[in-house]
Amino acid sequence: MATRFVSGIFAPMNRPSGNHLPTALAALVLLLAFTLPGFSAESLNWRKDKDSVDADITSWSLVRTLETIAEATGWQIYLQPGTQHTVSTKFKDRPRDRALDFLLGDLGRALLPGTNGGPARLLVFRGNQRDATRLIRAPRKGAKPIPNELIVTLKPGKSLDDLAKELGAKVVGRNKGLNSGRLQFADEEAAQKARESLLNNQDVASVDPNFPIVPQPVPEGGPGPAMPELKLAALKEGEGVIVGLIDTSVQRDGNPRENFLLSEVSVAGESTSNPDRPTHATLMADALADGLGLFANCQSGTHVRVLPVDVYGPNATTTTYEVASGIYAALQKGATIINMSLGGEGDTPYLHEIIKKGSAAGRIFIASAGNSPVTTPTYPAAYPEVIAVTAGDSKGNIASYANRGSFVDILAPGNAYADFNGRTWRVSGTSPAAAYISGAIAGQSDCGGLSLQQALGAVQGSMPPPKLGP
Question: How many CB atoms are closer than 10 A to CB 321?
Fold first, then answer.
């Protein structure tokens, strides 16, 4: 088979003057009315023009209050784990520092200026400000996480099963290497209650939302061009470039390029793919091979191999948790290039942290930008450590269906053809474009004798710059 591209209740108090926040720091605040389910009349409003705050709160948790402040100000807020405080207050037109007195009560706090132009940091604590280590993130808008799920990472030696039992949750995903799990709750309310509890749990390293990944494009049957041969070289121990293909399962039956594939890893259960139709990953493996063939001229054959990592299993969809687990598995197996021809709107810190660690270790990450003609970010492509690939047409314009956001790094052909069981199949989108680029980088490194970073630079330099279509 081959592929060819054709184109505590609040009690106000007087705080010591030395504990006041620096008045030189202007409040980066927006008008915000934040409403919690079941408390429709409650609000916390910040006004930038007057540097003043209004509040009407009966009983908010500390976490919820800090999240609201983070959203209004843009501050990075860190909380000492285990700190408990219930906010109950009502005031109007108070300056920022006095408003924080009312909201935080007898808790210690320190507002530190940002570094290198970054946001200011607010530390909230009971003991010492050095103990404020848990980042409290503002609620993310737009993308909707799976409402009754959380991704929880525990500190070493702590039991996920014990925690799930305590919370009344079910473990539906587990990563022993990362000591993390995907917890499922009875409903959204139970998940939210557990989340606030976990953010104050000193045994918990992080708590993150889990987002769905959009469905993969379906291959279509149709005529296609002749397919070039892919010549493989024999591998020796530790030799060759390994591309981790984070995707569906790759079919081997009816696949003449079986030797191009390493043994598959699954993090989502056994796949139940249709033997009469190629899976998305089967075509991505061929799209990758096509990029490899066009950019690599290896007379003795290529040492590049693909490591299929199934993050879908028997399911039609997947989540950012499985994607993160798939990346971790690929890195453990020695993959140096990670191809992610998938994505969604949800930005999950859990996934980003794994990518950041892989990138720091010299791995290259490639992802598809998304098959919607918008400029909004798609993740994981929009992470700065990832090369975001969009699809182009035969004229070098961004394809009409493809994402054209500022996070996009490179444009590549958006059509791919593959032979499967004697029939030609086609897939279009930013998925094959990403696989094409992953293959090209692998080929430049393998046959061109370049480092991965050098190969990435060579490929980016050889591709036409993206041009907006009409």
Answer: 30
Of 19-33, 156-170, 248-262, 268-282, the one with minimum mean pLDDT is 19-33
Q: Which DSSP string corresponds to 260-282?
A: GBPPPEESS------TTS--HHH
Buried b (16+ CB within 10 A) or exposed e, 25-36: eebebeebebee
| Omega within 30 of 0 (cis) for the link into 156 | no
Helices (runs of H) and strands (runs of E) counted in the chain? 9, 24
SS3 462: helix
How many Å apart are CA 465 and CA 44, to the nearest integer? 46
Tens-digit pLDDT profile for residues 403-435:
999 999 999 988 877 778 778 888 899 999 999
pTM: 0.82
Specify burial of residue 315 (Cβ count, 10 A radius: 0-12, 13-18, 19+). middle
Domain edges within the chain: 17-136, 149-210, 220-462
Please calculate the CA angle 262-265-269 and round it to the nearest 5 degrees: 145
> Right CATH number for 220-462 from 3.40.50.200, 3.30.360.10, 3.40.50.360, 3.10.20.90?
3.40.50.200
CA distance 103 to 439: 54
Given a cut of 90, is residue 177 above it in pLDDT? yes
**DSSP assignment of 321-367:** HHHHHHHHHHHHTT-SEEEE---BS---HHHHHHHHHHHHTT-EEEE
Q: How far apart are CA 5 and CA 215, in angstroms?
A: 22
Looking at the domain that runs over 149-210, which CATH code has it been given? 3.30.70.330
User: Using CA atoms, how far apart are residues 100 and 94, in angstroms rounded to an integer?
Assistant: 9
pLDDT in tens, 287-329: 998 888 765 566 667 888 999 999 999 998 999 999 999 999 9
Contact in structure between 222 and 425 (CB atoms under 8 Å)? yes
- Judged against a pLDDT cut of 80, whether residue 67 lies above it is answered with yes
pLDDT (tens digit per residue) in 102-112 = 999 999 999 99
Q: Give the fold, CATH level 3, of 17-136.
A: Phage tail protein beta-alpha-beta fold (3.55.50)
